[in-house]
């Protein structure tokens, strides 16, 4: 969803022209690459990653991530792992594995990793690698600001709601960002605090860390190399997490992390038993109340067929009658396959996206159905 900002051309050779400012990054990047490399076809998409359905992602042989947040990575990881199926011995079926290559940078530091769902650790298996984001106490922001960041967060978290009651702040809206910057300057002047700039305002509000061209080049090269390995089979892939540190000299280290076999995203899943008479509505209610799932406003699909969709209204109306049907019947009385349940999950009061795998055993019937429960905020 990002658009090109005036600071981007400094660190990205794809955005080198002044007239690119304000245009979608994906569209301009695709255009530049196709201009330089004949025979390459790139289809850009300027939208939220959640706007694409699962079939869109399933069409690709490999997914390469260059995302800028933990939440976005977690979502795509969940989508890729939702295609994963296990056999009766809890071994991943090779034809259902969707490899991923992930890269990210923070200033002079960066990482590149290879994720083979069901084989290597997925994103959720090593979520602890990401440090918690810095949070400022509201009392400090409201009463005793001491830094430029405090003034910016005051305008962003407190002043915005006071002035724009009920209106959601959009960090990608230049007018919204300009308003926060202006209010932050006023706040800083009131307390005699220097250093509030528009670029700093963007960085604090959007949690942006300055990009370093050399770091981006090294990490993107590592990701491209690992992608080539997977696609061509020309060499063994990275095992499985590389870190780069260019703060003092150059330091590169590769660590082989171990997959969490009980991971709710890439593992075989939580086993749950259902009666063959269990209706789709009852199943949705159970998913909402299950302590390890807790997905509300669920939509359910099976083998590309919409069993029930919360939205848009036209699909909800079309699939509403299925709520009273038994899940066993809706799965054509074949208790094997993957069911996707899309909904919302909340942690610490914040709605997030994710996929939770659910293995369903129908009582009195041989076989286990692999079911993926996905939560989308």
TrEMBL record:
PROSITE patterns: UBIQUITIN_ACTIVAT_2. Keywords: ATP-binding, Ligase, Nucleotide-binding, Ubl conjugation pathway. GO terms for molecular function: ATP binding; NEDD8 activating enzyme activity. Coiled coil: none annotated. Pfam families: E2_bind, ThiF. Pathway: Protein modification; protein neddylation. The active site is at 139 (glycyl thioester intermediate). Residues 272-363 form the E2 binding domain. InterPro entries: E2-binding, ThiF/MoeB/HesA, ThiF_NAD_FAD-bd, Ub_act_enz_dom_a_sf, Ubiquitin-activating_enz, UBQ-activ_enz_E1_Cys_AS. It catalyses: ATP + [NEDD8 protein] + [E1 NEDD8-activating enzyme]-L-cysteine = AMP + diphosphate + [E1 NEDD8-activating enzyme]-S-[NEDD8 protein]-yl-L-cysteine. Its EC number is 6.2.1.64. Catalytic subunit of the dimeric E1 enzyme, which activates NEDD8. This is NEDD8-activating enzyme E1 catalytic subunit.
């Amino acid at each position: 969803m990002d658009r090109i900002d005036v600071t981007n051309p400094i660190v990205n050779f794809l955005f080198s022209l002044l007239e690119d400012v304000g245009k979608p990054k994906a569209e301009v990047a695709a255009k530049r690459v196709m201009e330089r490399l004949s025979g390459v076809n790139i289809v850009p998409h300027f939208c939220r990653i959640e706007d694409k359905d699962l079939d869109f992602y399933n069409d690709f042989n490999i997914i390469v991530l260059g995302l800028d947040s933990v939440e976005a990575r977690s979502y795509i990881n969940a989508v890729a792992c939702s295609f994963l199926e296990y056999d009766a011995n809890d071994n991943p079926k090779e034809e259902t594995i969707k490899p991923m290559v992930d890269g990210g940078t923070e200033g002079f530091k960066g990482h590149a990793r290879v994720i083979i769902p069901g084989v290597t650790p997925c994103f959720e298996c090593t979520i602890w690698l990401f440090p918690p984001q810095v949070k400022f106490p509201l009392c400090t922001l409201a009463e005793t600001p001491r830094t430029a960041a405090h003034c910016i967060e005051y305008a962003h978290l407190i002043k915005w709601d006071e002035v724009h009651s009920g209106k959601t702040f959009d960090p990608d809206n230049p007018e919204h960002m300009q308003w926060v910057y202006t209010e932050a300057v006023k706040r800083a002047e009131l307390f005699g605090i220097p250093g509030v700039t528009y670029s700093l305002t963007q960085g604090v509000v959007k949690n942006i860390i300055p990009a370093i061209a050399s770091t981006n080049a090294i990490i993107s090269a590592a990701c491209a190399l690992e992608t080539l390995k997977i696609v061509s089979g020309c060499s063994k892939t990275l095992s499985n997490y590389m870190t780069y540190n260019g703060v003092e000299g150059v330091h590169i280290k590769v660590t082989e992390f171990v997959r969490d076999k009980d991971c709710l995203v890439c593992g075989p899943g939580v086993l749950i038993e259902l009666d063959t008479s269990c209706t789709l509505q009852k199943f949705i209610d159970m998913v909402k109340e299950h302590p390890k799932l807790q997905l509300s406003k669920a939509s359910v699909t099976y083998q590309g067929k919409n069993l029930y969709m919360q939205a848009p209204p036209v699909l909800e109306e079309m699939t509403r009658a299925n709520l009273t049907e038994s899940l066993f019947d809706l799965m054509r009385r074949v208790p094997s396959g993957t069911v996707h349940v899309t909904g919302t999950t909340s942690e610490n009061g914040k709605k997030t996206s994710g996929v939770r795998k659910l293995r369903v055993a129908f009582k009195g019937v041989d076989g286990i159905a692999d079911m993926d429960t996905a939560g989308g905020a």
